[in-house]
Amino acid sequence: MAKYNYVIVGGGLFGAVTAEQLTKKGNSVLLLERRDHVGGNCYTYNDEETGINIHKYGTHIFHTNNREIWEYINQFSDFNRYQHRVLTTYEGKVYTMPINLGTINAFYNSNLKPSEVEAFIATKRSGVENPANLEEKAISLIGKDLYDAFIKGYTIKQWGCDPRELPANIITRLPVRYSYYDSYFDDTYQGVPVGGYTPIFERMLEGIPVELNVDYFADRAYWERQCDRLVYTAPIDRYFDYQFGRLNWRSVRFEVESLAVDDFQGTSQMNYADLKVPYTRIHEPKHLHPEKKHRPGKTVISREYSQIDNDAPYYPVNSEADKQRLASYQELARRERTVFGGRLAEYKYYDMHQVVGSALALCRKLN
Asked: Which residues on adjacent β-strands are paired with residue 272?
């Protein structure tokens, strides 16, 4: 007889929300996590020297227009009112991102009014009617000058390939505004948990057995015997032993440094658009918490480098070959009793609120 109703593989956001919800509905649940901590890429910790809350795997801002999701996550933490404002450095000058009226006027040394921007940008656009790739799509939206300055080099670093090899829809994630509005997200609800993300996971998983440093694949037959049903949130190709080949991911690594200055860059995230700069951005996490007083004369920064590492997946590449492989794996998954969910198991780029919404929907279905 199985010991648990569910064993959940993966202690990231999808796995934690699923564990909390299934337990709340009377199920017995065991959660397995390969790393030495829960929280997945949302994991945070307090720097011992400065007390600054560090986002180990890159800056995470919770943002959503969905009130249900916002109220759900607020059960586990208070959130500050931080709104994400990103800057980018290009050829030694700093500009606001995403591209807005301030960016355009600063770049062209102009004084355009909102009503004048569309006509001005129209003179910079290409005549491509059906953009077939990211570069063509970007130039059709903002023109070659802005594309070359702010998109091209950053994209090459981020994705490790020519932008002409990437699908056009990637660029649509980045808004272009004809006003001075420079908040990165438009969502009604935005913020960062006042104590970081890790306490959220600790509260979600309170009373739920969690096994850390456990590789499910080291003895998958054993773990499957422990439950009536498995919820799998790790990479879908790994579950099927890569029989159709590996799905490709872009990964990142972080170079963390403590500095004896009060404020290094004046913002939580500075992008670097120049191809000659090896990193894509620098994070300074103290700026995520303007409500806190930090130790003066000290800060922590984290340089982010893009790389290939399919064992540390961040962003799905989603090439045509990847899409074909994914379809084959999804067909196998439909024949399984195992439940697949989350960005790794679905091979999908998810923001945090989308992960929460997907997990809540799954749990309603399972019960």
From this structure: 89
Residue 167, pLDDT score: 83
Catalytic residue among 20, 33, 237, 304: 304
Catalytically annotated residue among 162, 186, 349, 364: 349
Q: Which domains does the chain have, with CATH numbers?
A: 4-81+192-247+316-366 (3.40.50.720), 99-173 (1.10.3110)
Establish whether 33 is a catalytic residue: no
Q: Which of 81, 173, 334, 335 is catalytic?
A: 173
pLDDT along the chain (367 residues), means of 10: 93 98 97 97 96 97 98 98 96 96 97 96 84 90 94 94 86 85 95 98 98 97 96 98 96 97 97 97 97 93 94 89 97 97 96 97 90
- Give me the phi and psi of 218, to 5 degrees please: -65, -30
The question of whether 304 is a catalytic residue gets the answer yes
Active-site annotation holds for 349 = yes
Instruction: Answer yes or no: 173 catalytic.
Output: yes
Q: What's the token pair of residue 110?
A: 């102009």
Cα dist from 343 to 13, 281, 316, 320, 350, whole Å: 10, 23, 9, 18, 6
Among candidate residues 281, 325, 329, 347, the one labeled active-site is: 281
**Sign of torsion over alpha carbons 103, 109, 112, 117:** negative
- Torsion, Cα 10 12 15 21, to 10 degrees, reads 150
Beta strands 299-307 and 249-259: pairing type? antiparallel
Residue from 177, 238, 325, 343 carrying the catalytic annotation: 177
